[in-house]
Amino acid sequence: MPASAHGLLVAEGSAIRSLADIKGKKIAFARGTSAHLVTLRLLAKAGLTYNDIVPVYLPPADGAKALVGGSVDAWVVWDPFLALAQSRQKVRVIATTKDIVNGNSVYVANPDFAAKHPRALAAVMEEVKRVTEWAAQNRDQFAEKLAAAIGIDRDVERLAVGRTDLVVGPITPTIVAQLQETADAFEKLRLIPEPVDIRSAVWSSPGN
Description:
Helices cover 45% and strands 12% of the residues. The chain is an alpha/beta fold and 208 residues long. It has 2 domains: 6-99, Periplasmic binding protein-like II (D-Maltodextrin-Binding Protein, domain 2); 111-201, no CATH class. Strand 2, helix 1 and strand 3 (54-57) form a beta-alpha-beta unit. It is globular.
């Protein structure tokens, strides 16, 4: 599914130059979001653990202010907030999702609806796939429409859309394994109350 780029940002004058340098630092990100997951994966890439940083849970708008104000050392966020910070703030990107195994966005349906109306849901997903294919082939137009819808500068949205993986496909065993890894990590951090079996929640289109 479409996956937005994420990045770990620091202030332009920061002494942080690599992932290893974030040890012991205050890192801002939104709790329980994809940015939280990206933070975990970046830590693993650097050979660090969650206990090696001081997490600061902030939504994107507050995270941007905290980084500019110096109350945190780094900030992990997704597009278009990443693109907005790169365009408007004096920041440096230390790492992005290109440096790790990228996550996947998934579409979620009401279980009862999916069970009772599988063909309707299949038709919806076909339309989503068609629109996504159009967006991938018409990124400038797609960026303009998104910018108008969410009230963001068109150039900022063009930057974000330009690096977004605009692909829709089935949930493969590899994706299931990645999602299960995420669920297990979040359960370990008590972001979710109990273990989740991802495989049991995967929906298949009629005929598949």
